[in-house]
UniProtKB/TrEMBL annotation:
Protein family membership: Belongs to the short-chain dehydrogenases/reductases (SDR) family.
Coiled-coil stretches noted in the UniProt entry, renumbered to this chain: none
Top EC class for this record: oxidoreductase
GO molecular function: 3-oxoacyl-[acyl-carrier-protein] reductase (NADPH) activity
Name this protein carries in UniProt: 3-oxoacyl-[acyl-carrier protein] reductase
EC number: 1.1.1.100
Species of the source: Quisquiliibacterium transsilvanicum
One family name in Pfam for this protein: adh_short_C2
Keywords: Oxidoreductase
Keyword Glycoprotein: no
Length: 248
């Protein structure tokens, strides 16, 4: 099954590595023009080079997604460069781990408010048939003792998905959510755990019925489907991509 995104314009908030970059690549390989952003210039330029030549135009901009004005500027500039927006993917995470002011602020500012602000900035550009995809986590679907802020705010994204979907349905704009399980990629949380906390890493792997960590590309495939015409009657849904991790 090959999904075409030829002529579509896709904006990814947080797309220089891991799940965000895999999503950007999937859309580019399907023929879309893609915009990505990140705080770090070096990683952003590496990602930009990986995207070039895959599909349509590529736009890459430095953006601190915790900064309200920066989010609005990034989305508006991406729409201008690409010539519009058909798909918005909110992927960035501050990954607030600690149950203190710092942990909660990280998750609220980036996981939640960057999503809200990017959505609001994109709305004037979204026409009938457009799609918004939020990246949550299975931590938002069950207790998250190790990372209370992360789990709570990811749960808020799941609720926000249903509210947005209902509000935007009359405009013909669909809104869905993906809840990944444990996804491993270079430089990511589970890559670091494998190196520095093997007990935790092996414990998580053993808890997954599929007996392995997930790959960013497996999340990207679901994002591509949800944004495509094949999912034209799917809105307000959260899809877990976790290899059965929540079943154990």
């Amino acid at each position: 099954m090959k999904i075409s995104m030829e002529g579509r314009r896709v904006v990814v908030a947080g797309g220089s590595r891991g799940i965000g970059l895999a999503i950007a690549k999937a859309f580019a390989d399907a023929g879309a023009s893609v915009a990505i952003c990140a705080r770090g210039e070096s990683g952003l330029r590496d990602a930009e080079r990986e995207l070039q030549g895959r599909g349509g135009a590529v736009h890459a901009a430095v953006c601190d997604l915790a900064d309200r004005a920066a989010v609005a500027h990034y989305v508006g500039e991406a729409a201008r460069v690409l010539g519009g927006i058909e798909v918005l993917v909110n992927n960035a995470s501050g990954f607030g781990r600690t149950d203190d002011e710092t942990g909660w602020a990280a998750s609220i500012d980036i996981d939640l408010m960057a999503t809200v602000r990017a959505s609001q900035a994109a709305l004037p550009h979204l026409q009938r048939g457009a799609s918004i995809i939020h990246i949550s986590s299975i931590s938002g679907l069950q207790p998250s003792v190790r990372t209370p802020p992360y789990g709570a705010i990811k749960a808020a994204l799941i609720q926000y998905t249903t509210t947005q979907a209902l509000a935007l349905a009359p405009r013909g704009v669909r809104v869905n959510c993906i809840a990944p399980g444990s996804i491993e990629f270079p430089g990511g949380v589970w890559d670091e755990a494998r190196k520095n906390n093997p007990t935790l890493y092996q414990g998580i792997v053993q808890s997954i019925p599929s007996a392995r960590m997930g790959r960013p590309e497996e999340v990207a495939s679901v994002a591509l489907f949800l944004a495509s015409d094949m999912a034209s009657w799917v809105t307000g849904q959260t899809i877990a991509v976790d290899g059965g991790q929540m079943l154990s």
